[in-house]
Amino acid sequence: MIQQLEPILTVSPPPHVHCGRSIKGYMSETLMALLPAVVMAIYIFGIDALRVMALACTVAVITETICSKLMKREQAIDDFSALLTGLLFAFLLPASSPWWLVTIGAASAIFLGKMIFGGLGANPLSSPLVGWAICRISWGGFMDTNATMLTSSLAAPLQQLKYFGLQSIQSIQSSSLILGEQLGGLGEVQIAALLAGGVFLLIRRHIRWEIPTGFIAGILVTAWIYQLIDPTTYASPLFHLLAGGTLFGAFFLATDPASSPIGCIPSVLFGLTAGAMVIIIRVYGIYPDGVPFAILLTNLFTPLFDRIRPKPFGGPHKLMQKGMEDAT
Amino acid sequence: MTTFSFSLHIGETGPLVKGSEPDRLRIPIPCHTPILAEGDQVLAGTKIAIANHDGSGDMHAPLAGTIKDILPESMLIKVSGKDRAKAKKPPAEDGETIREWLRDLGVSVKNITRSTTLIINAVPPEPGISIYEPLLRDYRKTLELGLETVQRIVESSKIFLAAAKGNRANAFANCTVLHVTPIYPNGLDEIVVKTVTGQEMLPGTLPDDTTILSVKDLYFIGRVMETGRPITETILTIDNQNHLIRVGTPVGFLVAESGTMVQPGDRIVMDGLMRGLTAINLEQGVDKDTTSLQLIREDKGLKPTDNFCLGCGECERHCPARIMPGMISRCAEFKQFERAENFHIHSCIECGICGYWCKAQRPLLQYIRLAKYELALLRETKTPSQPLVEFIETGQNGEKE
Ligand code: SF4
Ligand code: SF4
């Protein structure tokens, strides 16, 4: 078939049409969804918040570049995934975090959370949370929003609940929680802004309803059960929903594609488990906010959840070897 | 790219147009063994190659000419003269005799076996392929003859005609019409069988008492019965127009006929955009089962990447076989083909939908096909790709008489 080779045709496997989505598109729309929270964070915590976010993003991108170089991999920073990881990590930090903490955390989020497992899509745990966990365990004092921001007049609902009991949070209005007037990670507490971003992602179908719904349901139901047991010690489900990083976790952390299950039922179960775990950690754990650890723990069960599969079409089936076929 | 629609709804289509005669034919024979040699003269209808696989039809020359070149995957015939081989008379006997007679004339008889239920698939296989429409409208007689002939072998008590809702489909005698939702992949045989019988069968297999044929199959069987001459044509949708095209017509010839210029880097897709393969160059000839020809400009088609799987699950959510294409492709990517079986690779009906939705633009269907192929080699389930020597000899002698 050598004759008449001109013009040279493209030979490519099917399908030849595509829905038009790309990794870069997904990452940039997720960044867009975070934008309102970024603005709110700067509005509430001031220039300090901007400093932390900018530093975390820069360090994340630089770390990924170095890692790709060392691993002799094609540079893929232009897909914005490192930027997203950096920003998500920054959202979990107090605005007062020192520069070295931000740097170490963002670098380990990329290195230990993502690249060491083979890069984008291979991370078994949500990468920003890996960075967060390392900082939290190593330098807990600096990560404690309450202790580091004593000068602020804002309430720290989860810490107050933990250390001073239910009475201390009675005065906190739900509406001020929604508007982000609480201490916590600089971005994770921007409830209204995050909700808007989450809805945007849902509408654009970048995330599916199963995980956020499961997560929120898990939180509400578990908190409600505790409240039924003893309404004088345990806070209301609504409080748990609005305080701390619950919604941030539901829409942005638990839905990380690589570390969450794939199917519909597994996703719901994953969300429910993570949600329930949040309340359990908040009630019994030593850390005031249970969201990051709850999601990290539940990530570990993702492979198990993924084993819940519908029956495959016409199957299950394995090709038999010739000899095996005769034997049966 | 995003304007692609999965709808199987077909609007008005024109009549079947007869394709013009090219001066050369490049007949694809990747699964056939040639029985003639370079330099041999052939008449229109002379058998030139016999099928390697049981039940596949033999290959015949569509036009008279001289065999110029024989390659493993194709045979080049330079067209000259108008002589035709003698027409054959259909046998009076039913069953195996007529089945073998049909196969000898190029009909693929794999699915023509005795069974109680016969399904006629009139649902477009892929969006934009309207080959069944003009047949159902203008060639009733031929289709009925085809069905009658098939019934002499199948002897089924129930006949179903599966059609897409909203598309034309008039029933044949004793036949129930069944409408399916006109959305891809509902026209693929596996899904049609499921809709009609309620049984999900592993791709490539059929329920014991059921068989499925397409309207195109019926048409060509009818034609063979009418004329006594072998199948040497196929029906292609090109630009919403259906053409009766000789097997082996080079794709470049067809594209030129349709008045389009091919630019370097374009791709010519044979069959639908979801499953079709691309022609390797303009000289490649169309095959008997090609259903359409589409030109995709260089900047339009999906360019597959070697991006890593994000694990987003888009592919899984759209997969009609309810499997995890992402995981299977990861297995194939790292050559762990046996692991792919744990993810039920054999349930894949090769519809290509996963690749359409993949955010990372991974060539998922290709990974799956590769893994299936490697598994078949590994398990030695591939059938030998050579017909028996006796067949070759009788084929050669038969033609030389
Ligand atoms: S080609 Fe993809 S979407 Fe279609 S059945 Fe196979 S795995 Fe599923
Ligand atoms: S759609 Fe693509 S990236 Fe997403 S899980 Fe499937 S293969 Fe992976």
List keywords for this structure.
heterodimer, A: 328 residues, mainly alpha, Ammonium transporter fold, 59% helix, disordered C terminus, B: 401 residues, alpha/beta, Rossmann fold, 4-stranded antiparallel beta sheet, 4-stranded parallel beta sheet, 17 strands, globular, binds iron/sulfur cluster
Question: What is the strand and helix layout of this fold?
Answer:
The complex is a heterodimer of chains A (328) and B (401).
Chain A: H1 23-45, H2 47-70, H3 81-91, H4 99-111, H5 127-138, H6 140-143, H7 145-148, H8 157-164, H9 174-178, H10 191-203, H11 210-229, H12 237-242, H13 246-253, H14 264-284, H15 291-300, H16 302-305, H17 322-327
Chain B: E1 17-18, E2 24-28, E3 32-34, E4 41-42, E5 47-51, E6 59-60, E7 65-70, E8 74-79, H1 96-104, E9 117-121, H2 132-138, H3 140-154, E10 158-164, E11 175-180, H4 189-197, E12 210-214, H5 215-227, E13 233-238, E14 241-246, H6 251-257, E15 267-270, E16 277-278, E17 293-296, H7 314-318, H8 325-333, H9 337-342, H10 353-357, H11 364-378, H12 389-400
Parallel strand pairs in B: 1-14, 9-10, 9-12, 10-11
Antiparallel strand pairs in B: 2-8, 3-5, 4-7, 5-6, 7-8, 13-14, 15-16, 15-17
Helix pairs in contact in B: 3-5, 8-11
The structure holds iron/sulfur cluster (SF4) (2 copies).
Please, could you describe this protein's structure?
The complex is a heterodimer of chains A (328) and B (401). Chain A contains 17 helices and no strands. Chain A has 328 residues and is mainly alpha-helical. Chain B is an alpha/beta fold. Chain B folds into three domains: 23-85 and 232-296, no CATH class; 96-226, 3-Layer(aba) Sandwich (Rossmann fold); 314-394, no CATH class. Chain B has a four-stranded antiparallel sheet with strand order 2-8-7-4, with no helix packed on it. In chain B, strands 11-10-9-12 form a four-stranded parallel sheet. In chain B, strands 1-14-13 form a three-stranded mixed sheet, with no helix packed on it. The radius of gyration of chain B is 21 Å and the shape is globular.
